[in-house]
């Protein structure tokens, strides 16, 4: 108890110096809490937006994932109605929707640009992606919009398209034939997903199937489960169920058998000319047997790699802030030791041991840490709660980001992280005071008493 009283008295002896040390700790913790709140909020927003656009699990026909950047329509899931019904009947599946994704050249007047065209199931896509709530001009698609479409707001600005205008596109069907169509814009959407906003055109699934020659087929099936943290388990159950009894074949080209020139008949039967038969063209169906699946995390791993790098930078910032705060405490405590050298000698002369001197100065450092950490936690948590409920409005900057992000970023206050930072602040302060305290404890009484 006496050591505690002496520690508190030492802290209050030089109020200006104490205020500087406490402020250093408080500012360090406040900045760290605010950074954590913003980063956690950004990570949550990115994860929510990714799941909103990609679901928990995406299913493809075998081989589609490796070619997905080219948006192939010749690798598709067939027997779609039966497949969707089977998925909906599985435990743990909350919702499911199918898409046909294809690339094409969008044309309006004298402007043209490559676009990402997506055929969607109107009701299920709206439940998962919330398209109807993101229409900023016009309206959402209906079953009567046979050749209607929604267009991303940035894409509409680039092409100079508005509601009721017609956008034409040229693309290739699943069999490689050229196709073209005119689509009437019924609405403009702002999804905060760069792929949709900057180059996206949404049309009815039936229309995309018709244009791409994919009857009762889709290139992608999006599945929503009960818990995003259990997406891996959901994917494994889906693939085990859907691939049961299906042998996924991989096509390997067979080397041609050499034929001697003498073996080729000069006039073959049924050959129109010469001795060479015209081979019949074999048209392969665009739908494949079997399924491959990927979770939302696997589909966007590059984004989370960037987040991990940012987390590493955050750790470096924390280390720098703690070092600066510790340096301030060391400076304060060393100054206290030099100023109170005579006092230390008197304490030793009347019987105080080195361990007791050590505890007094460690107590002063810990007291500085407690006061500074408490002030930093109060300030940081207060600002963090404001960010959590009010948020930071990025405005048009959000649309310029290369990954899905909301226009308003809401922070996330995590009580456990705040408690950990508080304890770290106290611990770092105590450790920083260890050297000055040890220096005071090792001081010789006769030498200390000379400082009068």
Description:
By secondary structure, the protein is an alpha+beta fold. The protein folds into two domains: 2-51 and 301-448, no CATH class; 62-242, no CATH class. It has 15 helices and 14 strands. It has a six-stranded mixed beta barrel, surrounded by four helices. A two-stranded parallel ribbon has the order 2-11. A two-stranded antiparallel ribbon has the order 13-14. Helix 10 packs parallel to helix 13. The radius of gyration is 34 Å and the shape is elongated. The chain starts with a helix and ends with a helix. Mean pLDDT is 81; it is low at 264-276.
Average predicted local confidence, pLDDT: 81
What overall form do the CA principal axes indicate?
A: elongated
Specify the biggest β-sheet: 6 strands, mixed, barrel
The number of E-state strands comes to 14
Give the structural class. Answer: alpha+beta
In terms of topology, how is this protein built?
Blueprint: H1 2-13, H2 15-54, E1 57-60, E2 76-77, H3 80-88, E3 93-108, E4 111-120, H4 122-129, E5 135-138, E6 148-152, H5 153-159, E7 166-172, E8 178-189, H6 194-199, E9 200-204, H7 205-212, E10 220-225, H8 231-242, E11 287-288, E12 292-295, H9 296-299, H10 301-339, H11 341-349, H12 354-389, E13 392-393, E14 408-409, H13 415-432, H14 434-441, H15 445-448
Parallel strand pairs: 2-11, 4-9, 6-8
Antiparallel strand pairs: 1-10, 1-12, 3-4, 3-7, 3-10, 5-8, 6-9, 7-8, 13-14
């Amino acid at each position: 108890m006496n050591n505690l009283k002496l520690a508190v008295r030492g802290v209050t002896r030089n109020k200006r110096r104490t205020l500087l040390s406490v402020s250093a700790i408080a500012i360090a913790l406040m900045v760290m809490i605010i950074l954590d709140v913003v980063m956690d909020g950004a990570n949550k927003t990115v994860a929510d937006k990714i799941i909103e656009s990609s679901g928990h699990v995406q299913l493809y026909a075998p081989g589609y994932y490796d070619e997905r950047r080219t948006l192939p329509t010749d690798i598709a899931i067939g027997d779609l109605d039966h497949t969707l019904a089977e998925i909906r009947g599985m435990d743990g599946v909350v919702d499911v929707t199918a898409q046909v994704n294809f690339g094409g050249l969008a044309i309006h007047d004298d402007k043209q640009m490559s676009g990402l065209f997506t055929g969607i199931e109107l009701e299920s896509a709206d439940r998962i992606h919330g398209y109807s709530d993101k229409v900023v001009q016009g309206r959402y698609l209906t079953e009567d919009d046979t050749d209607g479409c929604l267009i991303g707001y940035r894409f509409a600005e680039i092409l100079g398209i508005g509601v009721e205008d017609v956008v034409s596109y040229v693309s290739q069907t699943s069999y490689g034939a050229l196709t073209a169509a005119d689509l009437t814009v019924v609405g403009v959407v702002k999804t905060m997903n760069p792929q949709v906003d900057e180059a996206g055109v949404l049309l009815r699934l039936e229309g995309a199937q018709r244009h791409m020659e994919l009857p009762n087929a889709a290139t992608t099936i999006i599945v929503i489960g009960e818990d995003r943290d259990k997406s891996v388990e959901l994917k494994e159950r889906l693939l085990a169920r859907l691939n049961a009894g299906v042998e996924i074949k991989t096509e390997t080209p067979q080397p041609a058998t050499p034929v001697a020139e003498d073996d080729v008949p000069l006039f073959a039967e049924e050959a129109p000319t010469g001795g060479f038969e015209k081979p019949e063209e074999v048209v392969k169906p665009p739908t494949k047997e079997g399924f491959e699946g990927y979770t939302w995390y696997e589909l966007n791993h590059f984004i989370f790699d960037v987040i991990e790098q940012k987390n590493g930078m955050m750790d470096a910032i924390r280390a720098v802030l703690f070092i600066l705060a510790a340096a301030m405490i060391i400076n304060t405590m060393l100054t206290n030791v030099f100023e109170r050298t005579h006092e230390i000698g008197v304490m030793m002369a009347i019987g105080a041991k080195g361990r007791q001197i050590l505890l007094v100065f460690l107590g002063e450092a810990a007291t500085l840490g407690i006061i500074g950490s408490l002030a930093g936690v109060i300030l940081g948590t207060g600002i963090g709660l404001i960010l959590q409920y009010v948020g930071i409005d990025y405005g048009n900057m959000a649309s310029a980001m290369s990954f899905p992000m909301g226009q308003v970023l809401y922070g996330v206050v995590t009580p456990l992280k705040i408690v950990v930072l508080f304890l770290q602040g106290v611990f770092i302060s105590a450790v920083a005071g260890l050297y000055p305290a040890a220096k005071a404890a090792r001081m010789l009484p006769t030498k200390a008493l000379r400082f009068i």
